[in-house]
Amino acid sequence: MVAALVVAAVLAGGRPGDGGTRKPALVVGDSMVTVAARATDTAPVRLVGYPGLAPSVYADTSSPLLPDDLAAAGRPRTVVLNWNGNNPGNVVGTQLVAAYRTELTGQIRWYLCHGVTRIVLAAAVPSSFNSTSGQVDWTTSASRLNGWMLGSERLNEMYRELAREFPGRVRYSERAARAIHPAMAFNTELDGHRCIVDFIHPAPYCAKRYARALVSLAAGH
Question: Could you read off the pLDDT of 67-82 as tens digits, one per residue?
Answer without folding.
Answer: 999 999 999 999 999 9
